[in-house]
Design brief:
Length: 290
């Protein structure tokens, strides 16, 4: 799927600043105080957590809390702006702008795969200077293109972020990370995979009227299932109303993967406050893999 581009703020990458680690420690204390007993873990993540790496001057923080609503209320009172999931179901993204700019990625399961993925990528770059420098050069090259500063209409992510994905995936793969994870479709690769799943499996079933033949219907949410960095499944959720949704899943016969995907989607629906159990479309699990 071709992603339409919209304007966004210009992205700036600057040389490494040794004060970034100090800024993190200050912010960590603030977040820890706000969350109190609700806090499970707080990690410095992203490029500002890698000594010597050029980065956007924004401190990325990965945190884990027990209670979603308490965390949102407390962080908003502390000046953080809740920005939604971005492209990760069940995550809460926050931003804070001021003397120090922060992007906070909040999860509610210490074992969440995206927590481990972020830390593995950070640690790999910390211990592999060549990869760190290659990543810095890639950022500079991407930003030479004017459209890198734009955002795709079909994605919450800037083009700049999407174009780094292949490099990041290669690093993640080299670490041996192979866990199941779910993302909302955001890149051209993810949209293309979704289209292939639909085309292959819709030929075998009677398609419910609520499922459109294209991806332009804004009443649908599209998710892909990964094992590591490989897409192995796809789900379409039709938002019937403010309180109802219908689910169709297209995936392979890996039982562990199927159960994980189903559970994440159902939990997402509950968090979005759709009526529990409103899963009108049968889940489709083809005999052959993707």
């Amino acid at each position: 799927m071709k992603l339409e581009k919209t304007l966004t703020k210009r992205i700036e990458v600057v040389p490494y600043n040794p004060d970034w680690s100090k800024f993190f420690e200050v912010e960590k204390e603030i977040i820890s105080a706000v969350l109190g007993d609700n806090c499970v873990a707080i990690h410095h993540s992203g490029s500002t957590a890698v000594p010597g790496l050029a980065a956007k001057p924004k401190i990325d923080i990965v945190a884990v809390a027990k209670d979603r609503e308490k965390a949102i209320i407390g962080l908003e009172k502390a000046g953080y702006i809740h920005k939604g999931e971005w492209n990760i179901p069940l995550k809460c993204g926050f931003t804070k702008r001021g003397a120090v700019n922060v992007n906070l990625h909040m999860f509610f399961d210490e074992n969440h795969p995206e927590v481990e993925l972020n830390l593995k990528f950070r640690d790999y770059l910390r211990s592999h200077p060549d990869a760190r420098d290659e990543y810095a050069a890639l950022k500079t090259k991407i930003l030479e293109s004017e459209d890198a500063h734009q955002k795709s209409e079909r994605s919450p992510l800037p083009i700049y972020t999407i174009r780094k994905r292949s490099f990041i995936d290669n690093i993640i793969k080299s670490t041996g990370f192979n866990r199941l994870r779910v993302l909302k479709c955001a890149t051209e690769e993810e949209w293309d995979a979704a289209k292939k799943f639909r085309k292959k499996y819709f030929d075998r079933i009677t398609v419910p009227e609520s499922i459109p033949g294209n991806f332009d219907d804004t009443n649908h949410e599209h998710f892909v299932l990964y094992r590591g960095v490989e897409i192995i499944g796809y789900a379409d959720i039709f938002i019937a109303s403010e309180s109802e949704a219908e689910l169709s899943v297209f995936e392979n016969q890996d039982r562990e993967a199927s159960e994980y995907f189903d559970n994440v989607i159902k939990e997402w629906m509950e968090v979005q406050k759709y009526k529990k159990g409103v899963l009108k479309n049968e889940i489709v699990k083809p005999k052959n893999g993707f």
